[in-house]
Predict the structure.
Amino acid sequence: MSETWTVKKILDWTHLYFKDKNVSEPRLGAELMLAEVLNCKRIELYVQFERILTADERSTYREMVKRRSTHEPVQYILGETEFMGLPFRVDKSVLIPRPETELLVDCVIEHNKDKRLSAPAILDIGTGSGCIAVSLAHMLTEASVTALDKSSDAIQTARKNAEANVVTVDFVHADAFHWAAKSQQQFDIIVSNPPYVAEREWDDVMPDVRQFEPKEALLAGQDGLDFYRAFAPLAGKLLKQQGAVFLETGYDQAAGVADMMTNAGFRTSIRQDLNGIDRVVIATRGYAVKEQLEPVLEMIVEKPIDLDLLENEQEIANETDENRE
Ligand code: GLN
């Protein structure tokens, strides 16, 4: 009698096989791939455990299992992932969107709400799959979003993601620093999940990432800080006077990046991700200082002070640095 492969049996088998090969999240990967083959939701597998797979289904699934067993990320095998509840096509030219980056997007949305910006001009540097730019354009329907990437393959993938999610983003294929040096445009919001992995830590990066994701989207010099070092002195040129910068950082980098932005004349705060890791550096210019000072000054003097007289905002920003969150 030939062996019959049911949903349950094949999942159990793959789970063990992946475990043996040290593939991370062995059960989840198996379920996601089988759901793709059977064209159903992952949860629906559980109500058809006894379903018998056809020969075609088995061979399609087997190819996927082979790829996953080499540590290729499930998202590349499926060609798609989800970010901020939206579908994104992913391939080897782009980094797979991470949950931490959803925090970055949340910070921008929150800021936009607080400041009641009606039609912010947003710049996304190193857009990759376009996940940040596209989800911001989706949520902030009045915003005009510009997104840069130096990889033309990434720009192509990002364009498809904008199309699929029915949003308009101005994608520019350019090196951010060359572009910034020439551009006259200024933005209300600059956001970036730049490369930030330290070269000296490359060997510790998990094989799924190290062997499959684009190196140029990950590595940023010996200490992983090359992007921020180049960006900090340019930020002022690209940002409107009342603008704000949102930078994702590596697990041990936020304080150092905040210092770089402080030295460039910004006021900074840091936000933690769900794992309690400092993950996002927010940098703003003078207006935040003014907003804080206004009520205080009003209490001290009867006559309102013209805050524009406070010219040296950098000094003030540095003094209030202790208030960093
Ligand atoms: N968070 C990613 C990782 O852990 C790195 C992303 C990046 O360099 N921007 O691999």
Observations:
- Residues 180 and 238 are 7 Å apart (CA to CA).
- The longest strand covers residues 239-248.
- Residues 310-325 have pLDDT under 50 and may be disordered.
- Residues 98, 193-197, 209, 218 surround glutamine (CB under 6 Å).
